[in-house]
Amino acid sequence: MKPEIIVKPGSENSKAKYWISEHYKYVATTTHDPETLSLVIERAEGVWIYDVDGNKYLDFSSSISVCNLGYPTHPEVKKAIIEQLEKLAHAAGTDFFNPYQVELARKLASIAPGDLPRKVFYSNSGTEANEAAIKLVRQATGRKFIIAFYGGFHGRTMGSLAATASKNVQKKGAFPWMPGVVHVPYPNPYRNPWHIDGYDNPSELVNRVVEFIEEYVLDKLIPPDEVAAFIFEPIQGEGGYVVPPQGFFEELRKLADKYGILFIDDEVQMGLGRTGKMFAIEHFNVVPEVITLAKALGGGAVPIGATVFRADLDFKQPGIHSNTFGGHALACVAALKTIEVTEKLLPHVVELEKIFRDELLPLKERVERVGDVRGLGLAWGVEFVIDKKSKTPDVTTRNRVVKSALEKGLVLLPCGKSAVRLIPPLIISEEEVKLGLSIFKEAVLETAT
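Now predict its structure.
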């Protein structure tokens, strides 16, 4: 199978042009960029997307890692949802009890890294899962401060927004957001405040970040015994698909343990198989006290978020935290089947990682405007720069690559200042991976050289 472009996306005779115009009349402004991504989706099947003009595209976006199991819904997840619809969809799960919440919570507790007793709070999205995590650690420890990282994205509601620091536009006009969050540098091997090459000198970069946190934040800014948790993405998503050096989280864990600080591991974008392990933090040999999930958890069909936490951190009395729709029966059944299907796909993701690595890494040497290539599993980022020496972000070239790829039949999404993320559904075949990467490389070589 190959992409088929019948009507050029965004052209004057495109039906997409009409629907985009109508969208701006009736739908609130969010993050659309019709100049770069003039895609109006009508339907999708497997790893293929079809637009309103009949064009057929290979998907390397997974709808921001929501549709990890492909489109429209994986057959096994669809079957489970339909069967559950005949029984029960919603049943006020924070007032009454049902077996579906228990079964999913038991499963999440069993697959979470580390031999810890765990409980689960259900919500509808990643930002809600992180809001619950922040409230949880504050009430459990009696400490009020949270340390987050530059480049991190944790959501757009007022608590998680306070921890977010990937783009300043995300906070535009929103102040005051939740107080008590302090940001520190993330150990980005390619781009960090100390201009350290973190690929050649990973230990130096790790030490510099940890020393900064201890010497400048915990010694001079906030008392360590008032810090409840570090919140982080093990691989930063919106910040550019940034993979930290091995050893960073182990050193951060030592610092956290020294002062009794907890870990909130935001797995909303990288969790559930995206990196070749069920949780991305498993690549880094530490056990977080709190894990947040959403996006892929509902199998691309049902919204659900989850905050998975060490059991003794649980809310101290009923009513401290709750919601209406989080983890309703239908969502829990969908999530349970999604996990079951995903577990079987992990070896496949590991195999496909080798193809991504072999095909993408040479671009870093071959193309002057490709500054960095990084990734694990099926989570890859390619960062574009004006030139390798200055590392000045090249947003224009990045956008041209995304647009060119779309015109050739490949769907991509930008991330970070000037990066592209390549994140196909986990069900993608080796043949389809190679096809998508060839289109991407063609777009890069035509646009970025």
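The chain has two domains: 15-72+345-447, 75-342.
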